[in-house]
Write a structure and sequence with these properties.
Length: 233
């Protein structure tokens, strides 16, 4: 569709220049108009020799520039030229010029209408595609959100179920039992160590109870019970 529009626009621009193009270094427009008027008024065709002889006097131009004037009028589509035999013949009829200009204008209007229609169709397709993309995006986001919530719910349910299984799993029970036994062994070992240290403390303080209690309070911290020692677990 974009290529079609470009083709229409190129054709439009090409035909538009037939009406308003002004070639570079054109001969004076006023003298072009005089020459065209004279040719149209003659109601006949002219060969180049006749024009080179007549036009200098008609438009007050140099004979050497006649071809330049004829070429400028031909480029503008105001003067018709055909090669007949060994030479070019020129003519211009008012009715023919008017008809040609009307035909060009009609073609330009038709091409412009087609180009406008192509542009409208393109814009409609763009808007339709944009709306469809936005709608699809909203639906996708909604669907993903619902799916995410559903999966989260399933994960939580599985976690709860797994916790229940772990409570009754023989291997989990055995593991916890082993941990408890290991903890008891470690606690007993530390208790023995504490008794050995307290015996050594009594030995070096000479059994000074007040000094022993002060040292106990300093090392046991919040676990110390005055006059009793370590708090029972």
């Amino acid at each position: 569709m974009a290529k079609k529009f470009k083709a229409f626009y190129a054709k439009y621009e090409k035909k538009k220049t037939k009406l308003d193009r002004v070639p570079k270094a054109n001969p004076p427009q006023a003298k072009q108009d005089i020459i065209l008027h004279w040719i149209q008024k003659s109601l006949t065709v002219h060969n180049i020799k006749e024009l080179e002889k007549s036009l200098p006097a008609v438009a007050s131009i140099n004979a050497a520039t006649v071809k330049e004037y004829l070429q400028a009028l031909t480029d503008d589509g105001k003067l018709r030229v055909e090669k007949i035999g060994s030479g070019n013949w020129y003519w211009s009829f008012v009715s023919e010029e008017k008809k040609n200009r009307e035909n060009i204008l009609n073609e330009l209007r038709e091409d412009k209408a087609k180009a406008d229609a192509a542009v409208e169709e393109l814009e409609a397709k763009v808007e339709e595609a944009s709306a469809a993309r936005d709608e699809d995006g909203d639906e996708d986001r909604k669907e993903l959100g619902e799916m995410h919530a559903k999966l989260q719910s399933e994960v939580e349910a599985l976690r709860t179920e797994l916790a229940t299984y772990r409570e009754n799993d023989p291997m989990e029970v055995a593991r916890r039992k082993e941990e408890m036994e290991a903890s008891k062994i470690r606690a007993g070992r530390w208790t023995d160590n504490i008794y050995m240290l307290e015996a050594y403390l009594r030995e070096i303080t000479g059994g000074d109870r007040e000094q022993i209690e002060g040292i106990r309070a300093m090392f046991y911290g919040s676990e110390y019970v005055e006059r009793e020692g370590l708090r029972e677990l």
